[in-house]
């Protein structure tokens, strides 16, 4: 799996970390409101508000996030999207998508995570050419049957559809996404999420435990950072190795 959508994972977090979920959604709303602050005239903003409400983000938080970009909140710092990357010839590529109101803080934090894992951060677009930006539509396969969804998708211009675990994943180009999503919604298909993501052209198989551990440790470090929205990588490992690594990390994680 190439994607680690931080917002989606945090949605199931305990109450103690709900503020992180709220912060990420607020930043997404602020960024979407840049072009237009009225959700009736801005479909992207309307979509981000809908996602935030599904994650139980308070209305006051949503209103403040919109005002950051519309200028009504004069003291608010602007939200920036920054892409950080890492790559070595013998190692998978990683793209980290950050939303922050403090570029220096975010850069320092991301560099620290890379350094702690023993690797160096590259400049933007050093490895992003290995990925394509596509819309990724996710449907819960516990709610909708894969075969039925596949038949519907075949009627659209979607590029691909896969089924893994409990998720049906549909890929669509930037140009065709709106029509694909609209078609599915008109067929009363409940869409769990739809995000613009970095999808790798090819994957790199990881079979060595130590390398797999370094890879997952790096990913986990990014997921814990408040400014990181999503992490994308072209590394791939077997379910058995992934479970072995996760069990090792869980066993050796210091808890207060």
Q: Strand order across the biggest sheet?
A: 1-9-3-2
- Give the total of beta strands: 10
- Runs in which pLDDT lies below 50 for 5 or more consecutive residues are 10-16
Radius of gyration: 19 Å
State the helical fraction.
40-55%
* Top CATH class of the domain at 3-70: Mainly Alpha
Q: Characterize the main sheet.
A: 4 strands, antiparallel
Strand-residue proportion: 15-25%
| CATH level-two architecture of the domain at 3-70 | Orthogonal Bundle
The CATH topology of the domain at 3-70 turns out to be Arc Repressor Mutant, subunit A
**Terminal residue distance:** 31 Å
Question: Helices and strands, in N-to-C order?
Answer: EHHHHEEHEHEEHEEHEEH
| Average pLDDT figure | 83
Question: How would you describe this structure to a colleague?
Answer:
The protein is an alpha+beta fold and 256 residues long. The protein has a domain at 3-70: Orthogonal Bundle (Arc Repressor Mutant, subunit A), CATH 1.10.10. It is built from nine helices and ten strands. Strands 1-9-3-2 form a four-stranded antiparallel β-sheet. Strand 5 and strand 6 (167-172) form a beta hairpin. The radius of gyration is 19 Å and the shape is globular.
Topology diagram in text:
Layout: E1 3-5, H1 6-10, H2 18-32, H3 43-54, H4 59-70, E2 80-88, E3 91-100, H5 103-116, E4 131-140, H6 146-153, E5 160-164, E6 167-172, H7 177-186, E7 193-200, E8 204-205, H8 209-223, E9 228-233, E10 235-236, H9 239-251
Helix pairs in contact: 2-3, 2-4, 8-9
Task: Summarize the entry for a quick read.
By secondary structure, the protein is an alpha+beta fold. Helices cover 41% and strands 24% of the residues.
């Amino acid at each position: 799996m190439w994607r680690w959508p931080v917002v989606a994972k945090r949605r199931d977090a305990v109450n103690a970390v709900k503020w992180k979920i709220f912060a990420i959604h607020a930043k997404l709303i602020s960024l979407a409101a840049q072009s237009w602050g009225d959700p009736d005239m801005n479909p992207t903003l309307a979509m981000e508000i809908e996602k935030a409400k599904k994650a139980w983000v308070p209305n006051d938080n949503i209103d403040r996030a919109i005002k950051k970009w519309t200028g009504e909140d004069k003291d608010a710092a602007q939200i920036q999207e920054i892409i950080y990357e890492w790559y070595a010839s013998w190692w998978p590529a990683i793209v980290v998508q950050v939303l922050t109101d403090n570029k220096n803080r975010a850069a320092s934090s991301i560099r620290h995570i890379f350094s702690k894992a023993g690797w160096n951060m590259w400049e933007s677009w050093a490895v992003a050419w290995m990925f394509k930006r596509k819309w990724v539509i996710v449907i819960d396969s516990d709610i909708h049957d894969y075969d039925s969804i596949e038949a519907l998708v075949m009627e659209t211009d979607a590029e691909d559809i896969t089924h893994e675990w409990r998720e049906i994943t549909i890929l669509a180009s930037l140009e065709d996404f709106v029509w694909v999503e609209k078609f599915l919604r008109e067929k009363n298909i409940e869409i769990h999420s739809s995000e613009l993501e970095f999808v790798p052209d090819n994957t790199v198989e990881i079979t060595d435990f130590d390398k797999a551990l370094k890879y997952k440790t790096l990913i986990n470090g990014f997921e814990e950072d408040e400014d990181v929205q999503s992490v994308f990588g072209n590394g791939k490992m077997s379910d058995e190795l992934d479970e072995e690594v996760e069990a090792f990390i869980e066993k050796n994680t210091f808890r207060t």
